[in-house]
Amino acid sequence: MSGPAACRLLDAGRGDEPWSRHTAAPRYSSHGEAAGLRRFGDESPGDHAGPSPRVFIVSAPEQRPAQAKFVEGSTMRHVVVMTSTGSIGLVAIFFIDALNLFYISMLGVAELAAAIGFAGTLMFFTVSVAIGLTVAASALVARALGRGDREEAARMGGASILFMGLVTVLMSAAIWPFLHDLVGLLGATGETQELAARFLRIVIPSVPLVAIGMCAAGIMRAVGDARRAMYVTLAAGATSAVLDPLLIFGFGLGLDGAAISTIFYRLVLVGVGLHGAWRVHDLVRFPDLPGLVRAARPFLAIGIPATLTQIATPVGNAYVTYEMSRFGDDAVAGWAIVGRLMPVAFGAIFALGGAVGPIIGQNYGAGRYDRLEAALRDSLIFILLYVLVTWGVLALLAVPIAAIFGATGEAREVVVFFCLFAAGSFLFTGSLFVANAAFNNLGYAGYSTLFNWGRATVGTVPFVWYGATAYGSVGIVAGWALGGVVFGLAAVVVAFRVVRRGGHRPPSDDVPPPPPAAHSPFSTGKAATLQ
Description:
Elements: H1 75-105, H2 110-146, H3 150-175, H4 179-185, H5 190-203, H6 207-222, H7 226-250, H8 255-280, H9 289-310, H10 312-325, H11 329-345, H12 347-365, H13 369-396, H14 398-404, H15 410-420, H16 426-441, H17 445-456, H18 461-471, H19 473-500
Helix pairs in contact: 1-7, 1-11, 1-12, 1-13, 2-3, 2-5, 2-6, 2-9, 2-10, 2-11, 3-6, 3-9, 4-5, 5-8, 6-7, 6-8, 7-8, 10-17, 10-18, 11-12, 11-15, 12-13, 12-16, 13-16, 13-19, 14-15, 15-19, 16-17, 16-19, 18-19
């Protein structure tokens, strides 16, 4: 017999007549009997006239609520397992991004790699806007599902996709006529400026595609289908891995081939994403105009602050790129190589911020305040061990890595300096990621915004300016790294103070964190559907 807590009492004399049910659901002990009901043989002789009825109780196995698995066991083990599983797909996609730049570098033209650097800096802004709006889409769909209103969730999903498409179409149309001037503002000149603008003229019209694909993946994460959301990125990444060398070398299209490959990647992204959100989960239903107007307020209430938070990192990166441009195309090419190398080498650190959030959130929700500090401390220990090992490997392979990408002159100096010295700053950059995860899960999301913008402005501009003035291109990398040290330390100090107070605010658990790719310079958006 199926059904929750199902029971049937059969009279032995009649055999098939069910007794009336209790109005309240019977409670079952660990042995399966219902509380308040007597089993066969427990009744007294005077309870019934005639033959004693035989009472059978048949119950389905007790359905226990799902347990929060992070509130017990070693917090270090949870940190390691969650980070390891979260970083696999992330590193794979970042590796494909690095291969794209590697193929371009094989063409032997320094201006091409520099053009990718300038174009990637501008693309980072568009991807960050899409990430911020995706956070809003995920939150609204998750809230509706949490209330048990799937119809409303589907309407919010459809409205979110419409808003995402509208915003990114308007954004793309607004910047497209000025691409040449925009890359010029970043410091590009001459042939490099022309190449970067040409690349962007091909790619920018496809921004709505990647944005809608990211939104669809966010809808799937809201319903708990993280696996299918990951498939969105992996399928698109596999397309890019095949088409990049084919178009760049096979058809001899060079930089234009890389741009065309990006469009095909985005077509696959939106196709697989909409299939999962719309066809599989049926969570995309386009509302009428009044419904769209009603959905606009909650969407913008979450989307605008989330977007403002996300664009902090590209603002800082744009200033670094501008300062690099003062030292020529080689320096910008070197910074572009560093931007693609960082997430591959430190993919686990990028993943850690998203991995530790649920661990902190579950223990906070369960009142296990003793484990909050342990989770934070173990995350920092993980960062220490991982970064020291990775830093050592990068230092040993610094010169070969520069050679693989064909870096010479200023580009080689920038790459080698990063591998030998600046890579160590991820001890503190990772600490900032973990601190932000703690803030978001303990009800202090404003602190996360404050530290993000602080790192992108006060933690970047003066350090990078002084480094450029005193030491040139390598001084820029040193200044960028030193700013990360200052804000990483400050964030950790504040995070421990918040954790020791136990949060004391309702956690912001209905607003999902941004994907790890949101922190990666020159992000192409390929990893933006991975959490």
